[in-house]
């Protein structure tokens, strides 16, 4: 079932939808989903909205297809047997909504829009036009906010006041909040102020809703100057929501002062607190605030403010990446900046939490930087998000951002950065089995690196070409590329790069059946990673080493390698890597005929895979179930 609530801005569509969803929530046991489709100002593409919905339904990012049509098909499949309530707020068109409609008769979709979206009639939609409140209804809201006695004492003035609000709940709420915060102000004085402001109003908000502009102008005039400044600065933020830290950095304020001012704006309904210490603007309020967003009186224009915000996000993303990937060679100048030496994030978990929370803003920053010719910041952000990508594998977003980053690096004439981003893009293509595109990107990266003598870029491109060759089972080519990459890293004096490629060489040799040579490479890789303190890569090398020993029939050595991998990974906060090692323990035990040990390992791996929402949980479950049956039959 699809229900479309349409009406003018500020009429209360979103509030009505949320209240309705709350009342019917028990009828939809599989949950409620919410997506802000952006409205006319920043419309969200259907593909991006589908990714959000699929992630909310538990689909891991690396399993979400890059193609919008495939995402829509997966969404229909996932929702076919569920009972969900889905709220699509601020829709722009029927086409934007259509691919977000779930399958199955047990779901309901509520859509809000300023347009009628009549095209959804083909999808069986029910249409409801939300009219402005009547004077009587508006007076009820005003009474709830300022008190019955106060309204009754100035009945005629209260009528004039709510009439000036045009029946829009948003506007009545702002006026009511102003009066509630000024208990001695007469309602007649507030109404007179709005009448005067209506006469001189030049701002035309939302297609002629001058009453909205008058209310907002009066609310703005009543703010302290510092709060006015924050109101204007927040409106030019490139994303949909924000916290106090980015605005504090933009204005040079401390975060406490900024939080207090934001709380004041929230109390007056001029910003919406969407989460703990996270805020956004109603569309009409944002238009008004941006109209006033020239901050030259304090030496800061709206353009300057946005550039500072973009800089802040890029700098923070770099700081997070340094915590997540401290040993990876970097290209961007911010990695070497003095301010990065003071830790912004205390550990990897803090860094990942910030990246995930700000993910939509980070994507918006890349788009904004490209659209406003901040090319140097655009490509630096793309490099800085590598760690986030590796842990979430949101391929569609990554490919879109790297494409922008490559174009930005080209505009800057920075061939070293372009080569780095082309290899990052090629990595994603290879993981999606788009090997021709992966090879093309990395061959271009190799050409760029050779042209400027960038040996680090050359090593990266060679290694990625090896990945692509391995994916197409061209083992001799893969071996050659990895060996060349290893040699370049040796020349550069980069032991971690050498160790990574020795592990890859060992993996190829294992597949080619040259097990003794594979063991030499993998043992050397493991020892190097151990000495470097890279525990995750140490575990990976031990796993490959265990596989090589197992295939060579050296079961004791295989068990020792994998047991060491488990000892190390058990101390790491990495459920996915622990599950990988346990799955290998189960496979090796099963090959030896130790069914009970294999079953228990598979069960533990299943639990960990489920914790990170990895589909391998199903495979572990089926293997454990089969072994349980076999053990029961043996005991019987």
UniProtKB/TrEMBL annotation:
Q: Which PROSITE patterns match?
A: TPR (PS50005)
The protein's superkingdom reads Bacteria
Q: Which SUPFAM superfamilies match?
A: P-loop containing nucleoside triphosphate hydrolases, TPR-like
The record ties this protein, via InterPro entries, to: P-loop_NTPase (IPR027417), TPR-like_helical_dom_sf (IPR011990), TPR_rpt (IPR019734)
Q: Where are the TPR repeats?
A: 419-452, 459-492
Q: Name one Pfam family in it.
A: TPR_12
Key words of the record: TPR repeat
Sections of the chain in a coiled coil:
none
Q: What is this protein called?
A: Tetratricopeptide repeat protein
């Amino acid at each position: 079932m699809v229900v479309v609530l349409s009406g003018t801005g500020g009429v209360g569509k979103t509030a009505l939808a949320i209240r309705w969803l709350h009342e019917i929530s028990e009828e939809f046991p599989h949950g409620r989903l919410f997506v802000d489709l952006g409205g006319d100002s920043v419309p969200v593409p259907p593909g991006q909205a589908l990714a959000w919905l699929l992630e909310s339904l538990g689909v891991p990012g690396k399993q979400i297809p890059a193609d919008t049509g495939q995402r829509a098909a997966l969404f229909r499949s996932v929702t076919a047997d569920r009972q969900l309530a889905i709220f699509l707020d601020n829709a722009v068109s029927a086409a934007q909504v259509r691919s977000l409609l779930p399958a199955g008769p047990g779901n309901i979709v509520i859509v809000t829009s300023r347009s009628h979206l009549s095209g959804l009639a083909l999808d069986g939609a029910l249409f409801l036009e939300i009219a402005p409140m009547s004077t009587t209804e508006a007076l009820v809201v005003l009474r709830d906010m300022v008190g019955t006695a106060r309204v009754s004492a100035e009945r005629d003035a209260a009528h004039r006041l709510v009439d000036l609000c045009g029946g829009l709940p948003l506007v009545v709420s702002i006026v009511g909040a102003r009066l509630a915060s000024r208990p001695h102000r007469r309602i007649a004085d507030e109404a007179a102020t709005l009448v005067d402001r209506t006469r001189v109003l030049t701002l035309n908000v939302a297609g002629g809703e001058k009453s909205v502009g008058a209310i907002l102008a009066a609310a703005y005039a009543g703010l302290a100057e510092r709060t006015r400044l924050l109101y204007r600065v927040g409106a030019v933020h490139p994303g949909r929501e924000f916290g106090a830290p980015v605005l504090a950095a933009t204005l040079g304020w401390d975060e406490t002062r900024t939080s207090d001012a934001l709380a004041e704006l929230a109390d007056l309904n001029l910003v919406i607190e969407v989460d703990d210490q996270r805020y956004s603007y109603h569309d009409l309020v944002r238009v008004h605030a941006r109209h006033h967003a020239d901050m030259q009186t304090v030496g800061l224009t709206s353009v300057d403010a946005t550039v500072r915000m973009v800089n802040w996000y890029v700098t923070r993303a770099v700081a997070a990446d340094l915590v997540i990937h401290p040993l990876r060679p970097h290209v961007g100048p911010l990695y070497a900046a003095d301010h990065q030496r003071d830790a912004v994030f205390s550990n990897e978990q803090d860094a990942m939490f910030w990246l995930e929370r700000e993910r939509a803003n980070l994507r918006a920053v890349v788009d904004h930087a490209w659209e406003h010719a901040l090319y140097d910041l655009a490509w630096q952000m793309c490099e800085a998000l590598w760690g986030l990508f590796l842990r979430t594998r949101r391929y569609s977003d990554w490919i879109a951002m790297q494409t922008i980053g490559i174009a930005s690096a080209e505009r800057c004439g920075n061939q070293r950065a372009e080569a780095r981003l082309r290899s990052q893009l090629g990595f994603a293509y290879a993981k999606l089995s788009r090997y021709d595109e992966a090879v093309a990107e990395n061959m271009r990266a190799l050409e760029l690196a050779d042209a400027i003598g960038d040996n680090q870029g050359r090593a990266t491109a060679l290694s990625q070409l090896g990945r692509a060759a391995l994916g197409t089972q061209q083992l001799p080519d893969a071996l050659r590329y990895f060996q060349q990459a290893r040699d370049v890293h040796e020349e550069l004096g980069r032991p971690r790069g050498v160790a990574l490629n020795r592990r890859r060489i060992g993996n190829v040799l294992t597949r080619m059946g040259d097990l003794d040579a594979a063991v030499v490479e993998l043992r050397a890789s493991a020892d190097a990673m151990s000495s470097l303190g890279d525990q995750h890569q140490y575990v990976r090398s031990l796993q490959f080493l265990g596989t090589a020993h197992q295939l060579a029939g050296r079961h004791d050595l295989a068990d020792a390698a994998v047991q060491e991998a488990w000892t190390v990974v058990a101390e790491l906060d990495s459920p996915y890597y622990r599950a990988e090692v346990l799955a290998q323990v189960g496979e090796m035990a099963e090959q030896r005929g130790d069914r009970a040990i294999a079953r228990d390992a598979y069960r533990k791996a299943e639990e960990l895979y489920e914790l990170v929402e990895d589909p391998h949980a199903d495979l572990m479950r089926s293997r454990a179930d089969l072994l349980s049956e076999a053990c029961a039959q043996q005991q019987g």
